[in-house]
Design brief:
The chain is of the alpha/beta class. Strands 1, 2, 3, 4, 5, 18, 19, 20 and 21 form a 9-stranded mixed sheet that branches. The protein is globular, with a radius of gyration of 23 Å.
């Protein structure tokens, strides 16, 4: 006898093939049979007129701390995500020395949220053990973040080049973490301290991950003026090492760079044709989201926050920083591409600054009676990396051209700031409502493939992403007629409509749009 039998659904199985009507049986958390007249089950659910699809897999998540304080991870689960690869962009919480936990918690808060008051781990294997003790709304796998890894090894030297000994220590820690169950490495070459890594360091890390069959996820050094050079920087060591490379949230930043998109895609295709195992993920929005602190020039990001704060109190230093932000040389100057009108404050710790949430940096300057630069510098001086932003970095045409590319899959890049980007709550709803139902840019089977089996394959979750016999019975009920994406920049936390049920391991996790159980666990590679 089966544990669960779902009858009469239109099945979109995640492979990209056309929908078909069939019954699906579950036994011991796996899909046991698909067809008709399958036999008896402990529970039978009739889904005639509804669509059954695989649980969605988020190849680009940041939920590791959120899961410790909100184990439901409801922003993801309620939109159909049943599995996430967390620890992206080189941002994370291990390895970490005891005396550096408080500063790292402050540093990552704008991206990962606050997390638990007590961090009872230091090494990455200890973090895995800590998370393995919990039950969550969805399954979570972790990447080793390059930022904490580099900081752990190099300490106060983290803004310099890594020595041979530094690289040996980093790769040894990385091997230990992967042997304990990490899925690979993430780096954020746009962020401190990852931005100080050279090709020698990157190649060694890529080779280490390749040797253990893992994935390297990369937030590029530059997504704007020097995006082509940035691509070559990561594609070359990926090709030579044979590692599986995932380019994070692919986009071309700034109107002045939009003409480069053809060359960006051609460059990736050229490496793929030569055998490089490369793909890229994308969130389906024209605006990005990250730390407001990251607008500072790299030479200032290399300094400790107390030193940055001291310099921001000096008018001459402010003038120097402003000049570099207006005319960046060799780094991704987001302000120079967008101006203050294209940047919105979304997260702040201090109550006095929360009244500015949802406002552009120009509007905040006007509210404070200041030049926008001085307003920005004062905000940073008070809160540092706790401040987060939404930046309107690209355009809808570019989003759509990337979306239809065969090497593309979806990732939420969901952050947990005070006023989050709508992608945290609405990524899958937006794909299905706007680009499948509305614009018909993607067929339903192709969209589901890009939300499920393709990101599962890229991440290394080999037992899920398909409704196929022997695969995990992670499933989502879609009511296509009632599907509605409701999260937007004004109301980013609204959950959409049209996903009444979600099953994790064949057990109900969401029923009637409400979380009813936590069936997810930490997944080790």
């Amino acid at each position: 006898m089966f544990d669960l039998l779902i009858t009469g659904a239109s099945i979109v199985d995640g492979s990209g093939r056309d929908p078909f009507v069939a019954d699906l049986a579950v036994k011991d958390g796996l899909v046991a049979a698909i067809g008709s007249n399958l036999g008896l089950a402990e529970e039978t659910i009739e889904l005639a007129g509804k669509t059954l699809v695989p649980g969605f897999v988020d190849v680009h998540g940041h939920s590791e701390l959120r899961a410790m304080t909100d184990p439901d991870v409801s922003p993801k689960l309620l939109q159909g995500y049943t599995c996430e690869l967390a620890g992206n962009c080189g941002v994370g919480v291990a390895p970490v020395r005891e005396e550096e936990k408080a500063s790292l918690a402050q540093e990552v808060a704008g991206i990962l949220g606050r997390g638990p008051d007590v961090w009872n781990w230091n090494s990455f294997p200890e973090l895995l053990d800590r998370m393995e003790s919990g039950a969550y709304g969805l399954d979570l796998g972790l990447l080793v973040p390059h930022g904490p890894l580099r900081n752990y090894v190099m300490g106060e030297r983290r803004s310099g080049l890594a020595s041979e000994r530094d690289i040996e220590e980093m790769t040894a820690i990385l091997r230990e973490a992967m042997d304990a169950g990490a899925f690979g490495l993430s780096t954020g070459l746009f962020y401190d301290p990852c931005c100080y890594a050279d090709s020698k360091e990157l190649t060694a890390l890529f080779e280490t991950v390749s040797g253990r069959g893992g994935i390297v996820s990369v937030h590029q050094r530059n997504e704007g003026d020097r995006i082509l050079e940035s691509l070559e920087e990561i594609l070359a060591p990926a090709e030579s090492s044979g590692v599986r490379l995932q380019i994070s949230h692919l986009k071309v930043g700034g109107e002045r760079n939009r003409h480069k998109l053809d060359r960006v895609l051609e460059t990736i295709e050229r490496y793929a044709e030569r055998g490089c195992d490369v793909s890229f993920d994308q969130y389906p929005y024209s605006a990005g989201s990250t730390s407001l602190y990251s607008l500072l020039p790299p030479s200032y990001l290399a300094l400790g926050f107390s030193e940055v704060k001291r310099r921001l109190d000096d008018k001459v230093e402010r003038g120097n920083i402003r000049g570099q932000m207006e005319e960046p040389e060799g780094w991704d100057g987001v302000y120079s591409m967008l101006g203050w009108d294209g940047i919105i404050l979304t997260g702040a710790d201090l109550e006095e600054n929360r009244r500015f949430l949802g406002r552009t940096l120009r509007e905040i300057g006007e509210m404070r009676g200041q030049d926008p630069f001085d307003s920005y510098f004062d905000l940073i001086s008070k809160e540092g990396k706790a401040l987060t932003m939404i930046d309107f970095i690209t355009d809808e045409d570019s989003v759509e051209r990337i979306m239809v590319h065969p090497l593309q899959c979806f990732g939420t890049d969901g952050l947990y700031s005070g006023c989050p980007h709508p992608r945290t709550f609405g990524c899958s709803y937006r794909v299905l409502d706007r680009y499948v139902k509305g614009k018909k840019l993607l067929t339903l089977p192709e969209a589901i493939r890009k939300l499920s089996s393709l990101p599962a394959q890229r991440a290394g979750f080999d037992d899920r992403g398909l409704l196929s016999v022997g695969f995990r019975a992670d499933m989502v009920e879609l009511d296509l007629d009632g599907l509605e994406d409701r999260a937007d920049y004004g109301s980013p936390s609204l959950t959409g409509r049209g996903i009444p049920s979600v099953w994790v391991r064949g057990r109900p996790a969401v029923r009637d749009g409400e979380v009813v159980s936590r069936e997810g666990r930490l997944v080790r590679r």
